[in-house]
Amino acid sequence: MHFHDDALFPEVQEKLVITVAPYGPEWELDDFREDLPLTMEEHIQKAVDCYEAGATVLHIHVRELDGKGSKRLSVFNELLAGLREAVPDMILQVGGSISFAPEGEGAEAKWLSDDTRHMLAELDPAPDQVTIAINTSQMNIMELMTADDIAGTSMMRPELAATYREMTVPAGPEWVEEHLRRLQAKGIQPHFQLSSIPQLETVERLIRRGVYTGPLNLTWVGIGGGFDGPNPYNIMNFIQRVPDGACLTLETLMRSVLPVNTMAIAMGLHARCGNEDTIWGRPGEKITSVQQIQQLVRIAGELGREVATGKEAREIYRIGDTYRDADETLAKLGYAPNRRPGQVGFTQHA
To answer: Where is the signal peptide (predicted)?
Structure first.
């Protein structure tokens, strides 16, 4: 991405799209019952509250009534149907892991099987987006956690901390290409969750080969443990490699969430918050998903940057758009074109 002399002026920036992840699949209910929904009605009301606070993208997981993360797509279908009625303008984004929470004491924290995750393309009603990981990697969410982060929560249990420490994200090349094919066939936009520049380079290669032909909405996920950490140099190096036509959100965890989101807002990027990313505000003080959204809206207001409505967020994300082929996708995204046979030297900008 390029930053011209006026790039930090809010009048030349896109309106701010706030993603909220208010279903906290890694937490147990007693960790923050005031903010973690259990019943279907609570899940839907949480979305309404977040939308009214200013969030326009809803990152979705869902719980069973026993408090555990649901792995049943029928429950996702029920939630999606309720959300379509309650928050029709909100972008509904299903988390591609479905649920990574362990099913019982001593169980592994793991993403579901390749075939099960492929079934996200069959959700009915269809979500607007499904998040997709690129390249199998470690996802040790405990690496950056401090004693204060886990104080008084289920993650103080050694066996639970150990299983989250060993979690990996399965996203091999064959699975990624098939998953992209299925999502695109169903008109569901993939939202790329990327941990580092090598994963971004893989996405570019998929685009250059015509495996993915559409808008590039992506999130830099700086949670450490196999992903980038919330280091400003990591962030800026990643931003530098993102093409101008992409839509970039920054994500991190715990008390890094607010400063990273503040940087995103100032730079004209987009923000993500919610109890999946943090339950902490000031040291020792919990903060709800709605309060986090309100905080970001206030910061955007101080900077003079407007917050997108649901319909404006859909336009920014280009929900429903597809491109003809690799050449058109490269041009729309601002990547240089593929080299033609026999062409030497620099290629012209798309």
So the answer is: none
